[in-house]
Specification:
With 158 residues, the protein is mainly alpha-helical. It is built from 5 helices and no strands.
Length: 158
C-alpha cells in the first residue's frame, strides 16, 4: 500500500470516533435545548456548535480525499458545496464515490447550517432548523460512518 493512502486510512479511522463524540454531544444537549428554562439558550448554543463541528469534521475528511486521491480540491465561492458533490461522485480510474448521493443530499443541509453558524450571531439561530437536523443526525451519521469506514477499507485493498 502506498504511504499517502495509509495516512488517509488512518485519518479516516481516527476522525470517525471524534466526529462520533461531537454527534453524541449534540444529541445529549438537544433535550435541554428544547425545554424552556433560563439555561435554554446555552444548550441551543451547544447544539449549534456541535452541529457545526459535525459538518466541519466530515468536511476535513472530504478535503483529505480530494487532495490525496482526486488531486483536485474545488476552489471559488462555492467550493464547500462542490466538495460535497465531488465526494458523492464516482471518479473512474481514481476512486468510487466516498459517500452516497443520499448522504450528500442530507449533508448539504448541515453544510448550509454550518454556514449560518459561521456568519450570524448564534442568538439569531432558529431552534426549528436545529430540530430538523437533530432528527436526521442519528440515521445520517450511522450511514455516513459506515460509508467512510467502507471507503477506508477500499483504500486498504488497493
Amino acid at each position: 500500500m502506498m504511504a499517502p493512502f495509509r495516512e488517509l486510512i488512518e485519518r479516516i479511522r481516527g476522525e470517525v470516533p471524534d466526529v462520533d463524540g461531537v454527534v453524541q454531544r449534540a444529541l445529549r444537549a438537544w433535550p435541554k435545548a428544547e425545554n424552556p428554562s433560563p439555561e435554554q439558550e446555552f444548550y441551543l448554543d451547544s447544539v449549534a456548535l456541535n452541529l457545526h463541528g459535525f459538518y466541519a469534521g466530515v468536511e476535513r475528511l472530504f478535503e483529505l480525499i480530494a487532495r490525496r486521491m482526486d488531486q483536485n480540491l474545488p476552489s471559488g465561492e462555492a467550493w464547500h458545496r462542490d466538495l460535497l458533490r465531488q465526494m458523492a461522485q464516482d471518479l473512474p480510474d481514481i476512486r468510487p464515490a466516498a459517500i452516497s448521493q443520499e448522504s450528500a443530499i442530507i449533508l448539504d443541509k448541515f453544510r448550509r447550517f454550518r454556514h449560518l453558524v459561521q456568519n450570524i450571531y448564534v442568538m439569531n439561530l432558529q431552534s426549528d432548523k436545529m430540530a430538523e437536523l437533530i432528527k436526521a443526525l442519528p440515521a445520517l451519521w450511522a450511514k455516513l460512518r459506515d460509508e467512510l469506514l467502507a471507503f477506508a477499507d477500499f483504500l486498504e485493498d488497493i
